[in-house]
Design a protein that fits this description.
Blueprint: H1 7-10, E1 17-20, H2 22-36, E2 42-47, H3 54-63, E3 66-69, H4 72-80, E4 88-90, H5 97-106, E5 110-113, H6 116-129, E6 133-140, E7 162-163, H7 167-175, E8 180-186, H8 196-217, E9 223-225, H9 245-255, E10 263-268, H10 270-273, E11 277-288, E12 293-297, H11 306-310, E13 316-318, E14 325-331, E15 340-348, E16 355-358, E17 379-382
Parallel strand pairs: 1-17, 2-3, 2-10, 3-4, 4-5, 5-6, 6-7, 6-8, 8-9, 9-10, 12-14
Antiparallel strand pairs: 1-11, 11-12, 11-16, 13-16, 14-15
Helix pairs in contact: 2-3, 4-5, 5-6, 8-9
This protein binds pyridoxal-5'-phosphate.
Length: 388
Amino acid sequence: MTTKYPLEAFKEIETPFYYYNVELLKATTSKVLEEAAKYPNFHVHYAIKANFNPRLLEIIKKEGLGADCVSGGEVRAALEAGIEPAKIVFAGVGKTDKEISFALDAGIFCFNIESEAEVEAIERLAAERGTVTRVAIRVNPNVGAHTHSNITTGRAENKFGINYEQLDEIIDLIESMEHIELIGLHFHIGSQILVMDDFIALCSRINELQELLKENRNMVLPHINVGGGLGIRYDAPDKYPIPDFELYFATYANSLNLYPGQQLHFELGRSIVAQCGTLITRATYIKHGTCKKFIIVDAGMNDLIRPALYDAYHRIENLTSNKEDDVYDIVGPVCESSDVFCKDRKIPITERGDILAIRSAGAYGEAMAFGYNCREIPKAVLSTDIKQ
Ligand SMILES: *Cc1c(COP(=O)(O)O)cnc(C)c1O
C-alpha cells in the first residue's frame, strides 16, 4: 500500500502540517494484533509517547491496543481515548507523587518501577488510599542495541531500570511492603532496532534472570514485559509500509523461555505510527550559496526535531515537480544551524511554492513539536478529513 497524496487538497491547506493516512494506520494496528494473536499469551500496548494526537489514539483504541505511558499526562490521554485502565502500564524514572496518585486513582494495570525511592513513594500513596497496586521491576539488562546512542536505554550507564546486582535488594523491599504486589519484570533496550539479534540478546538475558530467580528465590512472576523498539524502514516507506511484526513476534516466541502461564507484554510505538505520518511543507525560497544550494522550507526543527536531535534520515519527496534531479540541503527557517532536514540530497529541481513530503514522520514528529521562535505547533490533517 503506497501513500497516495491528495495533492489538490494539499494546495488549499496552510503548510506545514502533519498528514496521517488513516487507512495505513488501521492496516498497521490490525496487522500487529493479528500477528500477536497467534500467541495467546502476547499482549500489545501502544507507546503513547510516539504520537499522542487524540484522533489517532481513538483509532488505535478502537483497534483494541492497550497503552504504555511515561507520564501522568499520558495516562490521562490514554483514559480520555477510552483505553481501559486494565490495559495501561506506566513507566518512567521520575514519576511524581501527583502522577502516581492520578494513576492509582485510575486503577491502572501496572507501574513499571525504576528505583527504591519510587517503591517507597508508591507504597505510601497506595496505603493512603487503602489499596494494593501492582508493580513490575524495570530491569536494566545491560544490552546494547544497534541504534543511535541517544536512543539506547538498556546499558548500565543509562538512567533507566535496576541493574542485576541490585535486584535482590529491591525485591526484598517490595516484598516487605503491604500495598504493592510484584507481578512482573519489565525491559526496554532502545528504539529503531532493525537487527533481530538485539532482541535475541535481550531474550537470553531475560532467560538467565528468570533461571536465577527460580533457583534463588523460587520465584516465577506472571508477567514479562519486553518493551518496544522495533524499527521501521525510513529509507523505503512505500516498499515497507508495515513492519515485519510476524518476524518480530516469532523472534520472541523462539528465543524467550516462558514458564507455563506467563504473559508476555510488548510496548510498540514507532512501528505502529511512523509510516502513516508525513510532514507536508512548502519551499519558501531556493537559495544559491557559493558551495551549496538550499531549499528553505516552511517546516523547521520545531515541527520535526528528529534530524537535528538524532541525525535521523527521512525520505523527502517533491510532490509538485517531476524535473530532473539536483542536489540540495533542505533546511528550515529556525535560527539554529542544526535546523537541517538533510544535506546533499538528490531531489527534483525545486521551485518556490513546491510542496514537499517529509516521509515516515508519524512517530516522534508531532509529539515532539514545540514553539521555538514563536512558531505555531503544526496542525494535523487526517486522510479522512479530505474528500477524495
Ligand atoms: C519509548 C518507549 C517505548 C516505545 O519505543 P518504540 O521504539 O517507539 O517502540 C516502549 N517502552 C518504553 C518504556 C519506552 O520508554
